Amino acid sequence: MTSLTDDEIRAWVWHPDSPVNDGKTWGFWANDHQKAPTGDWHSWLFLGGRGAGKTRAGAEWLAALAGRGVRCALIGASLHDVREVMIEGPSGLKSIASRGNRPSYEVSRKRLRWPDGGVAYAYSAEDPESLRGPQFHYAWADEFCAWRHPAKTLAMLRMGLRLGDAPRLCLTTTPKPIRALRNLMAEPGVAITRAATKDNAENLAPAFLEGLHGLYGGTRLAAQELDGLVVDDDNRALWRADDLARCYGARPERFDLVVVAVDPSATAGGDACGIVVAGRLGERGYVLEDATISGFSPLGWAQKVASVLAEHGAQRVIAEANQGGEMVRSLLAMSGCDVPIELVHARSGKRTRAEPVAALYEQGRVSHCPANGGRFAALDEELMALGSGELGKSPAKSPDRADALVWALSALLVNGRAEPRLRRV
Question: Which InterPro entries does the UniProt record give (predicted)?
């Protein structure tokens, strides 16, 4: 009896004519980042590096929904992209379909039809007006950041998502630092998935990742195209992609001091509450966790701070008091923060406050140490935008994570080096 390798089994199961390919095995083989998020959302934004599996994720999501009577939309940078990538590509809708429900594409009508009655219409982002009039249950939009008119096309598409009880949209794209993407990321009801190319390494040629990282590792191009981060190409930015790529490393076994820094949110549902944990050992700083949350009441984020404080055994809380003043201290104390609480005030602009901390990164005196060995992707994006031309262009989002990090490292390494204090009991 001949045994099959894992790759041979996978190829057999997923071959279009395989007797076991009934369209229901995706949940078993898919990476976690390729599965649609749970919860209440109207738009799923998948930000991924090249080869991260985002096209397959979008196709599988739409195919699972395209049943009898369901009308869908497929939107790409051009009609050529829709057909060659989203419909007929290796991870397109025709390629992934089970042999009993394989759709056919009607070129003259730009329409994909499934045998069980589902239908999807192809549209080009080059012509936003073509979306005026049609209506849909679901839509899959690919490479949003490559669209000629991203904001206008997205607006026209959403006006057509009005069929059924819960119309939904999936957007898959390699991110670029455009305002339309930043506004989309900040919208309520948008679920964001992030994936780097390496997260899908088992489905890529072995030399692919190694070769690209050897050529571009640590550059802005790698951060954008391989890590799937929103990277600003702006000389005014205080943090550079290569500096952040180099600062990741292992955490020490002990610290001289650990603090939790908080950039509070004044109201529920508004800006996020930035929460960053950092430690100091000697002359180096270590960023241990980005615990930032959004959509919480003041008491809710204060309780989150208390939980993070206990988890890391931190000896101090650093909290910005511009919004709330002494109320911030009272909320934190009431929530169980039984360590010294230092209130700080923003008396200068964000860039001015951040410059000394950015200098620490240039000196190689800061390490990022995520517990899971990955990256602080959202935090890195905010740092790279801080001080650049993009900061302030989009009114929808404030750099709360970056602000909290600046407060934490300023307290540890800039402002006279915060020292542990004894609390009288």
Answer: P-loop_NTPase (IPR027417), Terminase_6C (IPR035421)
Provide the domain count of the chain: 2
Query: Can you give the three-state secondary structure of 209-222, one letter per residue?
Result: HHHHHHHHCCCHHH
Q: Where residue 24 falls among pLDDT bands split at 50, 70, 90?
A: low
Residue 1 lies in a domain: no
In angstroms, the CA 391 to CA 186 distance is 13
Residue 425 neighbours by CB under 8 Å, 6+ apart = none
Whole-model pTM: value is 0.62
Q: 341-344 and 168-173 as β-strands: parallel, antiparallel, unpaired?
A: unpaired
Instruction: Tell me the helices (H) and strands (E) count for the chain, helix number first.
Output: 15, 14
Nearest to 332 by CA among 306, 358, 309, 353: 306
Decide: 122 and 128 in contact? Cβ < 8 Å: no
8 Å CB contact between 76 and 124: yes
**114 lies in some domain:** yes
Instruction: Write the single-letter amino acid at 368.
Output: H
Provide the residue range defining the domain that includes 309: 236-414
pLDDT in tens, 377-421: 889 988 988 866 544 444 445 788 999 999 999 999 988 555 544
Q: What is the pLDDT of residues 144-174, one digit of tens each?
A: 999 999 999 999 999 999 999 999 999 999 9
347 belongs to a structural domain: yes
